[in-house]
Amino acid sequence: MEALFDNFAYMMEGTNWQMMVMWLIGGILITLAIAKDMEPSLLLPIGFGAILMNLPNVDLHIIDVLFDIGISEKFGELFPLVLFIGIGAMIDFGPLLSNPKLMIFGAAAQFGIFFTFFMASLCGFDIKDAASIAIIGAADGPTSIIVAQELGSNYLPAIMVAAYSYMALVPIVQPPVVKLLTTKKERMIRMPYEAKEVSKTTRILFPIVITIITALFAPMAVSLIGFLMFGNLIRECGVLNSLSETAQKVLANLITLFLGITIAARMHYSEFLNINTLIIMGLGLIAFIFDTAGGIMIAKLINLFLPKNKKINPMIGAAGISAFPMSSRVIHKMGLKEDPQNFLLMHTVGINVSGQIASVIAGGLIMTLVYQFS
Amino acid sequence: MKFLSMLLNPEATEATVEATEKVLRDTPATAKEALQLMAEGWGSIFIVIIIMIFVIMVLNKVFSKAK
Hints:
The structure holds two protein chains of two kinds. Chain A is mostly helical. Chain A has helices spanning 2-14, 17-35, 40-53, 61-70, 78-90, 94-98, 103-108, 111-122, 127-134, 141-151, 156-168, 170-181, 184-187, 200-217, 222-236, 241-263, 269-272, 275-303, 326-338, 345-369. Chain B has helices at residues 2-8, 10-20, 31-65. Chain B starts with a helix and ends with a helix. Chain B is mainly α. Classes of the chains: A mainly alpha, B mainly alpha. At the A-B interface, helix 7, helix 8, helix 9, helix 14 and helix 20 of A face helix 3 of B.
């Protein structure tokens, strides 16, 4: 019994207010995950991990080991790359392949990444941190992890929490921006979908070709694109159905399980609780807002050159953000709200998956471009 | 050209690679530098994506005929 009380006294001695704040943050993330169904597969483990890492006088060496194996550069950032195999296996690029011009909106909606680099630099973050914060705008967890790790950013936990939180908040963040930048008339533009068949050969060659093009122009993104496209090739080849299913379900779930709790390795209050974390959350929001704006503005620009009966609904540009499939559904629902006969989903899905590719390339490019400031 | 020079003179290429292994500056980018990166980065994505669009259109054209 005495040992029990001794343990309790020892734990209470080691507790401070910063730990309690982290317990609260962990609790909020868990509540958002469960009660609001916001990216529960990641926010719940991150939230729980935040509590775990901030218990007094507790040695959680295993989480450091998981971090070294799965996230640090030591073993090549294993978790995010392997997760991308699962993500690639989940994605159907058919709507994109039937209308590849939609990829332009995937590129446009990465504007927020570069604008946020500008803003983060103005806020005084050094180059590696500004670039790592900017990549929150990629709206993609693995890309954010890899860029932050490769550049050696000090703010990986804050970046992860921001990235995953805003991905879950897309239904709240995007609609006001879309309404601000478009008129009702523009939102009601109908875009009938003509299904075009895509050959199996194209579907098989697509992942190989994309990987090669990325290697030629954005080599630092090859690991991410390569694993994403490998997953997609497993899906599309037609002879590896059990592997594809394993990648989509078991592998993706397993890695997601470890990834969330491992991120928490850097959520000790000494690393997480500072004013910069708040600034990073703010910059993350800016990234998402300007991603949305970038996609919409390019659509409006293209519309200037199109005949009246061929106009694009500029809302679909917003779907170029890489938050798949949430963003495509949000924009589709907004279109239906304006006109119940306007089905934008096939367009927005194509653009959304192109955003996945574009965001990874953006990550590779930013990792290359920052070195010109050595 | 670069590939050819790598084939013909690998030692010079290695020296170039060493010289280009730079360390990131630990100060913020200036506004001008950040704007430059913004323009280069966003512009570069468009170029890469346009190349991908073109290649996919070629694939669609070639393999739809082959069907």
